[in-house]
Amino acid sequence: MVEHAQPARVRAGRQAGGSSAVDTTVSQILDLIRVRGLSVGDVLPTERELCDLFGASRNTVREALRTVRTYGLIEPKPRVGAVLSDGQGAAIQNFFAAHMDVSRSSFRDIQGFRRIIEVGIGDQLVLHVTDQQIEALETTNAKVLGSRSAEEAARHDFDFHTMLIGMAGNRTLAEMYAFLAPVILRIMTIGKERRPVLSHTQRAHAEIIDALRSRDRLAYAYLMSRHLDFGLQFLPEEPSSTTTKGVSA
Prior knowledge:
mainly alpha; elongated; Four Helix Bundle (Hemerythrin (Met), subunit A)
């Protein structure tokens, strides 16, 4: 929550954790939008007011506003100032994806969430998948190996999984995956610069398709879980939260 008595202390704490002054001010602007419940067309405080509110320099506030504007959350309006744009949903998606640190713990969180969903819909898929849907999955999967970049491969990977979500026939799940697309796509690019990874992705998809074709619920659950865990091997080990002192080598 943004309050007059807190910004300097909050900013100091965040900078101690490694964030720049601009990053901190960006976060404070987003907090201000949330706390005040601002909506499309509402005007942000002026640069001077933000400087006073956050205890930041004019240059820092100006650069922070430029960053927020880059993600489409605000737009300048002559003789009015910065106003909230009507592209908030896409802006929040892109901002979250760009600032998300893909660590082993965040990978486990996102993939764990996906496992709950994508394994959970297995019964529905096994019971109702059609030959036409299986052919569509195979067509999408065939595009993975022909990808010219990690980003293109991630897009085909994402298309495959969103097709599975769509086959479940749940609009809320489909909308949720569309919202999380930038984050999931970022995770899906991990390791895809390597050709063997593309082969593994395509093969894992093919095995999932075979499980659906065979109406094998257990095989589907196992193969999907294994597939979602695959990228973890490409992330570096995280440092231990505890350190050992006084032990000689």
